[in-house]
Design brief:
Largest sheet: 3 strands, antiparallel
Distance between the termini: 49 Å
Shape: elongated
Strand order of the largest sheet: 1-2-3
Order of helices and strands: EEEEEHHEHHH
Bound molecules: zinc ion
Number of strands: 6
Oligomer: single chain
Number of helices: 5
Strand content: 15-25%
Number of domains: 2
């Protein structure tokens, strides 16, 4: 893999460890020219998963979208990056097991369910954005649950 700093093609792996409950490998690499160190991750690529949106259009599943939503939900909360990646891995495993297509609403519901267990603040933040409540009463009802 090319060095991101000097674009030299010769980089070596200086450390390699299994992370995220064994579903990913984290590697530290070092450029043999400028000695820059950088990190790469290896995990399964869920190319086959298609998301059906509310309006019926389809798009390829994008892990980064889930990650961005979780980063917002957990802003200033105690949550490590690895724990967050593990959460996404467990969700992806569920989604890919149930078929090659998934509704965006089901994705939202699964995340809400998971956040409810993990962190009440992240849960409310995510729910308020992604479940798009129709009325304030809907939201109050959710908070009571
Ligand atoms: Zn370099």
């Amino acid at each position: 893999m090319k060095c991101p700093t000097c674009w030299n093609v010769d980089t070596k792996v200086v450390d390699s460890r299994v992370v995220e409950w064994g579903y990913a490998i984290r590697r530290r690499r070092e450029c043999e020219y400028c000695e820059e160190r950088f990190t790469t991750f290896e995990r399964r690529w869920n190319t086959d998963l298609v998301v059906i949106k509310r309006d019926g259009t389809k798009e390829l599943y994008d892990r980064m979208k889930i990650k961005k939503a979780l980063l917002l939900a957990f802003a200033k909360r105690e949550m490590t990056n690895e724990a967050m990646e593990e959460m996404i891995n467990s969700l992806e495993m569920k989604w890919t097991k149930s078929g090659s297509e998934i509704n965006s609403q089901d994705i939202g519901k699964d995340i809400v369910r998971l956040l409810k267990e993990k962190d009440p603040v992240a849960y409310v933040r995510f729910a308020s954005v992604y479940l798009s409540f129709n009325t304030l009463d809907d939201f109050k009802h959710l908070l009571k649950e």
